[in-house]
Amino acid sequence: MAKHFRAKPILLDCFHAVDVYRTAAIRDKCLRYHSELYNALAIERDKISDCLKKALLEAAIGPFKFSGWQRLVKYRYSDNPLSPEGSLLEPGGRFNIPDINPLRFPRFPALYIAEDRKTALGEALGGEGDGAMSALDCALVKRESIAVISLEGELDSVIDLNKAERLEPFLRLIAGISLPAEKEKLLADMGKAAEIEPMQLVRTMDELANALFAGEWRRMPMLYDIPAQCQVFGQLVFNAGIDGIVYPSRVSPGNCIAIYPRNLIPGSYVQLSGAVPASLKITRLDRVSWPAMRGTLDY
Fold this sequence. Notes:
By secondary structure, the chain is of the alpha+beta class. It is 36% helix and 15% strand. It is built from ten helices and eight strands. The strands form two sheets. It has a four-stranded antiparallel β-sheet. It has a four-stranded mixed β-sheet with strand order 2-6-5-4. The longest helix is centred in the N-terminal third of the chain and has 31 residues, at 17-47.
């Protein structure tokens, strides 16, 4: 007859009701701090908005032609591979603002594409795994459930983050931003109450790069309901009327582009390469086709 043993209980966590209320109070203080900081900086940026726009327009290059670039889409969305709808889902993409709070943060979509297949897979699925595990393995996505689309096109103007020196005039402008003394004191007190280190403003090119390529940029929209610094940069580029941002991937040697469909001028376009299924309604994204696609995004 089998002998039964009573398992020894293991304590996973221990807390009191007061800890729950304290955590909720700290969370609310963090939300207020980040919201106050965002508003304060937005006011200061607005004061020099024309200068920022001019600096970005002068930093842009173009025309930017590309061929053989790749875009990964889930198979169920493969009938509309040029739709940027996914970028509007929270937390959005690195350089666009999603549906965080449309009344407070006007949303705008971006079409994200990559220079090669490996980069497209890594960016969409979270990078390459350790050892023999691929990005697909790590993302727990069935190999037959995705489609990788080949693209070509031409953009009138882009900000190329591989050419950081072109952003020097822009950097000088944002590095010159300072908050009023009373606002700085208020934020310092709020940060202390929230038990967080006050955020440092961007002053150098290295700090700008860290802000644009931060690995944990999703924390801001997901935890604090405000755009991340890289998304704010994308907003400035978008508002300047520039077609997109070229940037190096964090998971592959290849580059990526965040393309802003709303800014495409006549002659700028993205289209599928080679033969395409006859069932596809939109195979080219440009100034003409974008309004029809925009209607499906309720944007």
